[in-house]
Design a protein that fits this description.
337 residues; alpha/beta; TIM Barrel; eight-stranded parallel beta barrel; two-stranded antiparallel ribbon; 13% strand
């Protein structure tokens, strides 16, 4: 079964392998398959589920609600997010203004068929809205009982510090950040993680398998497998391109004997690696087929020895992105609408 970790400096526990439905529900797979995969996650011991209003333009939340119908609400931890354009994408259908945040939580609760979400997250930083306005709206949502905890996604160290200070003034906790993090993409390690450790904020990391590249199925100089994420525009093909370089793919192949020596599959090694970071509370995983989860959940509770971690670094030398400047390039400087 899956282990649990505390989220930030709180008493709230989440499954350290968390199910995310970014590119699967209402997009990559049919609803029946998505529902079967959620049930497989539950059977494997995953109780924490992450979604967002923007996924499949709100449809992913509805699919998740259908999949979780009949489950004991108190035994689930359900996360969603607000920021990106949804619906007809009007001038206030985007960002972190008070209007969009309040419209967002009401819409998400309606689609998820919930009275509250456990964690409500700012999907990006909004440079066009005063941070005080954003944090006040989150404070009101917490006081109204519509969200129990507040988190963010892809905020810089400085933004986390400012947001954390305002949250404390307003009487609630900022408990989490949701950044991209994997063996190949380590930009949070230089500034974001140290600031988060100081502030009592955990990371909920997405793409721990680097969009599937760390599975080892993409081979240098070879055509990509049919039906893989790299071929499907609906399932994140644009995100994976940054890793689809021969030097990266060659380095990833050097991980295969290391995984075998550790008695792990490549996906298990990738997920176990991010969970070695004590500031990581959860690794977000997705699946298009139920059987994929049976493999990945076995990464829970795995300890990678120092010699293995050093060998991984040696294998990937020269292809890892660990420049902290990358954390400043994620949130758009202006809204998209």
């Amino acid at each position: 079964m899956v282990n649990y970790r505390y989220l930030g400096n709180s008493g709230f526990k989440v499954s350290e392998i968390t199910y995310g439905n970014w590119v699967t529900h209402a997009s990559q797979v049919e609803n029946d398959a998505a529902i079967a995969t959620v049930h497989a996650a539950l059977d494997a011991g995953i109780t924490t589920f992450d979604t967002a209003d923007t996924y499949a333009n709100t449809a992913a939340e509805e699919v998740l609600a259908e999949a979780l119908k009949g489950q004991r609400r108190e035994g689930l931890e359900i996360f969603t997010k607000v920021y990106f354009p949804i619906g007809p994408m009007g001038p206030n259908d985007h960002g972190l203004s008070r209007k969009h945040i309040l419209d967002g939580i009401h819409g998400s609760l309606r689609r998820l068929n919930l009275d509250y979400v456990d964690l409500y997250q700012a999907h990006r930083y909004d440079y066009e809205t005063p941070l005080e306005e954003t944090m006040q709206a989150f404070a009101d949502i917490v006081r109204q009982g519509k969200a129990l905890y507040i988190g963010v996604s892809e905020w810089t160290a400085e933004q986390l510090r400012e947001g954390h200070a305002l949250a404390r003034q307003l009487g609630f906790q900022l408990v989490s950040n949701q950044p991209q993090y994997s063996m190949l993409h380590r930009v949070i390690e230089g500034k974001v993680v140290p600031a988060s450790e100081e502030l009592g904020i955990s990371q909920i990391v997405w793409s721990p398998m680097a969009q599937g590249v760390l599975s080892g199925k993409y081979l240098p100089g070879q055509p990509v497998p049919e039906g893989s994420r790299a071929t499907d525009e609906k399932s994140g093909a644009t995100f994976i391109q940054r890793f689809m370089k021969d030097d990266v793919l060659t380095a990833v192949q050097r991980l295969k004997p290391l995984a075998e020596q550790a008695g792990l599959t490549m996906p298990q090694l990738a997920i176990a690696w991010v969970l070695q970071n004590p500031n990581v509370a959860a690794a977000l995983v997705g699946a298009s087929r139920p059987e994929q989860l049976a493999d990945t959940v076995k990464a829970s509770g795995v300890t990678l020895e120092p010699d293995l971690l050093a060998a991984i670094d040696d294998a990937l030398a020269g292809v890892v992105n660990d420049d902290p400047a990358g954390t400043y390039e994620v949130s758009p400087q202006t809204r998209l609408v």
